[in-house]
Write a structure and sequence with these properties.
By secondary structure, this protein is of the alpha+beta class. Helix 10 crosses helix 11. Strand 6 and strand 7 form a beta hairpin. Strands 1-10-9-3-7-6 form a 6-stranded mixed beta sheet, with no helix packed on it. A 6-stranded antiparallel beta sheet has the order 2-12-11-8-4-5, with helices on one face. It folds into 3 domains: 167 residues; 83 residues, Serine Threonine Protein Phosphatase 5, Tetratricopeptide repeat (Alpha Horseshoe), CATH 1.25.40; 176 residues, Sandwich (Lipoxygenase-1), CATH 2.60.60.30. The chain is 43% helix and 19% strand.
Length: 464
């Protein structure tokens, strides 16, 4: 068929569509009109996918609501069009109009996954409105809608779609603030911030709460991040800019002035005054995949990086794994929000700055002797909030046995694992400490995750 005939057929389809809408409720001939419209639209669609024929797709979707008998043919036609133009917004508009009518929750999840990543953030609000019953067709039952929301979080995390995840967490947090717990809302909005794609409204509401709670530093960081992006509303930008200035003023006023500080008491030991600080013992350096035996005892694992400008927020974490390769429960995930296991065998000591701010580290202690027999491995990971590791310099893991451990020193020497040439990973498995033949070994890993800490948590069975 000559593609040039497409526009003429399209005009005919439009006219018949308008006539069908006028006559549907009162004319017995409507069915014939709709059938004719379907035939014309199908011919137009076959005519080379002319850009102007997008409206014919929409007309075809409308026809299918009356002609259920040809649903399979209609879906096949949509599949052909999407295969030819996988990111064509017009075709997706028509397709979503058609398939979201009386859709099941499983089909809605499959549709969400099928959407191209470039278009998913744009259409996600539509799909969520279907799940919530806010579309014009009445949506799906409440229980199915709730299930879609729960499973959508895991789906977007698995897909690594941070932009869609940021929008969804933003909307979920805002809804929670209106209808539920403010504490829970703040936690969800913080998760939205960590994706790097929170909505402006989410940052607005989050920072209002943070300022009220005295978390001025966190509020300032969130405001700085969102103000670096385009904001269409000048009044909103002005409001957020003023709030940032207020946060900085509050932070400045909370710092004690030098004149108000007490004079430090200096104790001098004449016998030690000329001695330099004791250097750290030399560590055995590992490369990815290499392992070495270590002694039983209490070990300090330090994850460090250089950050003279204070630009990076790197977080260390530990996962206690059973022989299944998964955690036994969520209590086995030690990170910034859960810093100690119930039995205190693994403790996260937070972030510290070394010297004048050039090197920063986070420290975790592991008591190998006290670990339950059901724990066969402890995995150490690092993740970064807002960005990736491509710009982080000097990332390194070092493990030292604490003083006082009773095991023989011949296998207790410190171990280090420097990481080089990092890319766009947002989380990295650094190393694992594991049981072998009645003892313990440490292995350097260096495996990256583009979807951040959520990807690591998912792989090891943490409920996120």
């Amino acid at each position: 068929m000559d593609p040039s005939a497409g526009p003429e057929l399209l005009d005919r389809a439009r006219r018949r569509h308008a006539r069908a809408e006028d006559e549907y409720d009162r004319s017995p001939e409507t069915k014939a009109v709709l059938e004719a419209m379907f035939a014309d639209a199908a011919e137009a669609l076959a005519a080379g996918h002319h850009p102007d024929e997008v409206e014919a797709w929409f007309g075809l979707a409308q026809v299918r609501r009356y002609q259920k008998g040809r649903r399979d043919d209609t879906l096949a036609a949509f599949d052909r069009a999407l295969a030819a133009s996988p990111e064509h917004r017009g075709v997706w508009d028509a397709y979503l109009e058609y398939v979201t009518y009386s859709i099941s929750v499983d089909s809605l999840l499959a549709l969400t996954e099928r959407l191209p990543s470039a278009l998913r953030p744009e259409y996600l609000h539509w799909l969520v409105s279907v799940a919530d019953g806010r579309d014009r067709w009445g949506g799906m039952p409440a229980a199915d809608g709730a299930r879609y929301r729960v499973e959508l979080l895991g789906l977007l995390t698995r897909l690594g779609d941070q932009e869609s995840l940021g929008w969804f967490l933003s909307e979920t947090g805002l809804t929670e603030e209106r209808t539920g717990s403010h504490t829970r809302a703040v936690d969800i909005l913080r998760d939205a911030m960590r994706t790097g794609y929170p909505s402006v409204k989410a940052v607005d509401r989050l920072t209002i709460r943070l300022v009220k709670d005295g978390e001025w530093d966190e509020a300032a960081q969130a405001l700085t991040a969102v103000l670096a992006k385009p904001i269409t509303s000048d009044s909103t930008r002005e409001k957020l800019t003023k709030r940032l200035a207020r946060c900085r003023k509050l932070l400045a006023s909370s710092q004690p002035k030098a004149a108000d500080l007490p004079e430090p008491e200096i104790e001098t030991n004449e016998a030690e005054v000329d001695l330099p600080p004791a250097p750290l013992p030399a560590a055995r350096s590992l490369v990815a995949g290499q392992n070495t035996p270590i002694a039983v005892g209490v070990w300090t694992v330090v994850v460090s990086w250089r950050d003279p400008a204070g630009k990076f927020d790197v977080d260390a974490s530990a996962l206690l794994l059973a022989d299944t390769g998964k955690i036994r429960s969520d209590a086995d995930f030690v990170f910034y929000n859960q810093r100690v296991t119930p039995d205190r065998t693994v403790i996260h000591h937070g972030e510290q700055t070394i010297g004048l701010g050039d090197e920063v580290h986070e420290q975790i202690t592991i008591d190998l002797a006290a670990l339950p027999a059901s724990v066969t491995r402890v995995v150490i990971a690092a993740s970064i909030d807002q960005g990736d590791f491509s710009s982080v310099d000097g990332l390194r893991l070092r493990a030292d046995r604490c003083a006082g451990s009773s095991e023989s020193l011949d296998i207790a020497g410190p171990v280090s694992f420097p990481l080089h040439r990092l890319g766009v990973e947002r989380a990295i498995l650094l190393a694992e400490v594991y049981r072998r033949n009645g003892g313990w070994r440490i292995r350097a890993i260096g495996q990256g995750y583009a979807d951040g800490l959520a990807g690591i948590a998912r792989d090891f069975g943490v409920h996120v």
